[in-house]
Design goal:
It catalyses: [(1->4)-alpha-D-glucosyl](n) + phosphate = [(1->4)-alpha-D-glucosyl](n-1) + alpha-D-glucose 1-phosphate. The chain has 862 residues and is of the alpha/beta class. It has 28 helices and 31 strands. Bound molecules: pyridoxal-5'-phosphate (PLP).
Length: 862
């Protein structure tokens, strides 16, 4: 490798300063460090990261754990020393051989039975990806989840490719000033300090262009390696574009709605073109949140270009191979664009693509309004849909019920897969070493809850010592961060000392409760302060003190979110709470790993049911922290009465203020009467046996269920495999099935408003044990035939709707006769339940090529 120098001019105090960065030569024995720096494998492999840290720890921290920047700035001497240090070289070779072994391993049978690696390919589109703090193209939960999804896909060696945008400035860097104001600062990252390389085809840099109003916007393409898989990122900062277009991919969630729609055109349309240019042929397309939904249009265009199919048939074929995941019930998470903007932004593209604006607009219409909803487009352009927890799946079914207007929301096709986290990324290495000793095969048992019973075999004192060591590391980290923060703000040393005294007191081993996430108002960060006097009394108890640690960013335009930061900041400076409340600035993935593995309790108080899943509590649980949270999102499934504490949400119909008060009181009650007493119930051993028991119950029940490997395998089994097959079926023989299905749907849509259904005779109201009742209905099918519909009787037990009752039994009625445009359907039903039961009769259009029997959203009840 050649050494070279970089010059940068910065203008300060009139005199120009030239910054010079002297790059080292990587000694030959350490050559492969560059390879390691260019694979996001480092984002979850502690071995790789500790190699860099060993060469120069201070520099490693200074470059914020960025391997590429590290290799550019490290002193030549350090590298030379390392290349001659036998212990280092041994570790280096060990890390490389584990890296090589990782890359060599192929997919297991659980994958190959479902997706043929030679043929199938999953394309995963998302607007943000959070792999590691050194690659800041994420803002919060959605990005981290997408990163974890890719990491687990790599671990499973899934045929998988991801597509996103490269934001030069990413999300903002947060500081909190002496008055508690959030200051947002954006920092540009040059491509050579990120783990990406330009994509070239036949020696030429790959570029794709997308028609925008009056011009084409060009994007260059970068590749990020993530172990087995690849992530392609589009970047509009290229010389073909004017300055405004160059800045299209400048910031994540920056700019106005016209920036946003432009970014989404690049992601959806441009992203599809990237895969095409690379010769990749995905068999399943996963749209992760509405931002990427424009890919549906581009895929329709491609299908129409490469076949005889018209728009409706192409849409059927495209949708059958598509999964759409919705991630939040909160309005800010759903892009809604005015009609005029959509017309302006997409007009030229649609014209060139031969797509009709009215038809396209109808795909994004919601509630008959005059705006375009990306979530609606995602749902109408896909036949597989899911929310991200059981509760959220139900909420999404209600919210998006208008897509299937006549179908009861509980039955519409929106399912759920609960989010999980990538264990190697978020499990502290200290725990993973302990597991290596206690249960060496644990890494391949991440979907086997029984296996995790081994946690109980770990001696309590050993278990607690690991937690305590991590907690101490966290304490030191917090002190470091606070010092930096306070120094800049001109806050005195004495304040920093008083603020952290409790936290680092090792003889007290103070109970630490953590809360860190985006400061969005629905997350109710200040709920715990509802009764300040009482909280103060609990936190500052001399014998049983408590420290609260807060961190998080508020979107630069979210003023109420920023107000929450100020409230917490001011409280943290108040003499009465000094030392018991700490607010850290600039929450990112590095801080998340520290806090989540160091705290005793992880707190979450969202407003039910708005926390679609939440994942930070899962990360905390892997590391032995106990969750104390509203029973919303994943915790609604994870809590089992013994593995943390749950706050039951109050009825959403109640006055919000009243709800807040009630839930806040539950929270404080739990802290005062359960959390604090259990934590400080220390006998001679210096820690609480009861606490360790609960912590083990949490770790062993949550780790094997709420991890990304389980999540991705659920996606494979429930969606990727079926969608792969359905897509192939619809496109077989030049798309004949798609054409037939689209024609059939058009016919049904025409006829349905004129269809009628009524009962013939009367339905008996009683029958003897072992008897049966005759059911007979008569339908006017308005030109449809008996084969175009299903007539169904649902029987539910009297107690239906109460917790744990089974769903209704269903029986189909068969065609019995047909005359004068009337079709009679009949069946005999033996009552499936003893005693009283309810019978309901309904009819809906049915075709064997449908993906979901109710996907047309049409249904008629008698
Ligand atoms: C896990 C994580 C999140 C998401 O946390 P929630 O509990 O889902 O809000 C946000 N930011 C970072 C840095 C994370 O690691």
């Amino acid at each position: 490798m050649r050494a070279f120098a970089r010059l940068e001019a910065t203008n300060m105090h009139k005199a120009t300063e030239f910054r010079l960065e002297a790059h080292p030569l990587i000694p030959e024995p350490l050559e492969r460090l560059e390879e390691l720096a260019n694979d996001l494998f480092y984002s979850w492999d502690h071995g790789v990261r500790s190699l860099f840290a060993r060469i120069d720890l201070r520099l490693w921290q200074k470059v914020e754990h960025n391997p590429k920047l590290f290799l550019r700035r490290v002193a030549q001497d350090r590298l030379n020393e390392a290349s001659e240090d036998r212990a280092f070289l041994a570790e280096y070779r060990r890390v490389l051989s584990s890296y090589d072994a990782y890359l060599e391993a192929g997919p297991g049978p659980e994958v190959t039975e479902k997706l043929d690696p030679e043929q199938a390919l999953v394309a995963y589109f998302c607007a943000e990806f959070g792999f590691h703090e050194s690659f800041p193209i994420y803002s919060g939960g959605l990005g981290i989840l997408a990163g974890d999804h890719c990491k687990a896909a790599s671990d499973l060696a899934l045929p998988f490719v991801a597509v996103g945008l490269l934001y030069r400035q990413g999300y903002f860097i947060q500081s909190i000033d002496a008055h508690g104001q959030q200051i947002a600062r954006y920092q540009s990252h040059s491509s050579d300090e990120l783990p990406i390389t330009p994509v070239e085809i036949d020696g030429n840099v790959l570029k794709v262009s997308v028609p925008f109003p009056d011009r084409d916007v060009v994007a260059r393409v970068w590749e990020a390696r993530v172990g087995h898989i690849r992530l392609y990122l589009l970047d509009s900062n290229t010389e073909e574009n004017g300055p405004e277009d160059q800045d299209l991919t400048l910031q994540l969630y920056g700019g106005d709605e016209s920036t946003r729609i432009g970014q989404e055109m690049l992601l959806g349309i441009g992203g599809t073109r990237v895969l095409e240019a690379l010769g990749l042929k995905p068999t399943v397309w996963h749209i992760n949140e509405g931002h990427a939904a424009f890919q549906i249009l581009e895929r329709c265009r491609n299908t129409m270009m490469n076949s005889e199919l018209g728009f409706e048939s192409a849409l059927e074929a495209v949708a059958g191979a598509t999964l759409f995941t919705t991630h939040t019930p909160v309005p800010a998470g759903h892009d809604i664009f005015p009609r005029a903007l959509v017309h302006h932004a997409l007009g030229r593209y649609l014209e060139e693509a031969g797509l009709d604006f009215q038809k396209v607009f109808a795909l994004g219409a919601k509630d008959g309004g005059d705006s375009f909803n990306m979530t609606s487009l995602g749902l109408r352009g896909s036949r597989y849909h899911n929310g991200v927890s059981r509760i959220h799946g139900g909420v999404a079914s209600m919210m998006e019920g208008d897509i299937w207007p006549q179908v009861p929301p509980a039955e519409n096709p929106i399912g759920y897969i609960t989010n999980g986290v990538h264990v190697p990324t978020f499990l502290a290495p200290e725990w993973s070493s302990l597991f290596d000793i206690q249960a060496p095969t644990w890494k391949s048992e991440l979907r086997n809850p029984d296996f995790w019973e081994f946690i109980d075999q770990i001696p309590d004192y050993h278990y607690w010592s690991v937690h305590k060591a991590l907690k101490q590391q966290m304490g030191e980290y917090i002190v470091r961060r606070l010092k930096r923060q306070h120094k800049r703000n001109g806050t005195g040393h004495s304040v920093t000392d008083r603020m952290t005294r409790q936290l680092i007191s090792s003889e007290k081993d103070t109970l630490v409760i953590g809360f860190a996430r985006r400061f969005a108002t629905y997350k109710r960060a200040t709920l715990i302060f509802a009764d300040l006097e009482r909280l103060e009394r609990i936190l500052t108890n001399q014998d049983r003190p408590v420290v609260l640690v807060f961190a998080g960013k508020a979107h630069p335009k979210d003023k109420p979110g920023q107000q929450l930061i100020k409230v917490i900041h001011d409280l943290s400076m108040h003499p009465s709470l000094m030392g018991h409340l700490i607010l850290l600035e600039d929450y990112d993935q590095a801080m998340a790993r520290r806090l989540l593995s160091g705290v005793d309790v992880w707190l979450n108080t969202p407003e039910y049911p708005k926390e679609a899943s939440g994942t930070s509590g899962e990360k905390a649980a892997l590391n032995g922290a106990l969750n104390l949270s509203v029973l919303d999102g994943w915790w609604g499934e994870g809590y089992n009465g013994k593995n943390g504490w749950g706050i039951p949400p109050r009825d959403t119909e109640l006055d919000p203020e009243f709800r807040n008060e009630e839930e806040a009181r539950d929270l404080i009650d739990l802290i005062e009467f359960e959390v604090v007493p259990l934590y400080y119930d220390r006998a001679s051993q210096g820690f609480s046996k009861g606490w360790v028991k609960r912590s083990k119950a949490s770790m062993k029940s949550i780790t094997p269920r709420f991890n990304a490997q389980r999540m991705v395998m659920d996606y494979v089994n429930n969606y990727y495999q079926p969608a792969s097959q359905q897509g192939a079926l619809l496109m077989a023989e030049g798309g004949q099935v798609a054409v037939a299905l689209a024609d059939w749907k058009a016919r049904v849509r025409q006829a349905w408003p004129g269809v009628e259904l009524r009962v013939v005779g009367c339905v008996k109201s009683s029958c003897p044990h072992n008897g049966a009742v005759e059911l007979r209905v008569e339908a006017a099918l308005n030109g449809l035939s008996a084969a175009d519909v299903r007539v169904e009787c649902l029987v539910s037990p009297e107690c239906t709707g109460t917790h744990g009752s089974p769903g209704p039994d269903s029986f189909f009625l068969e065609r019995e006769s047909e005359a004068e445009g009337r079709t009679v359907f009949a069946t005999r039903v033996q009552p499936p339940y003893p005693g009283l039961q309810t019978l309901r009769l309904r009819m809906y259009p049915y075709h064997e090529s449908l993906t979901h029997p109710l996907e047309m959203g049409a249904m008629l009840w008698v």
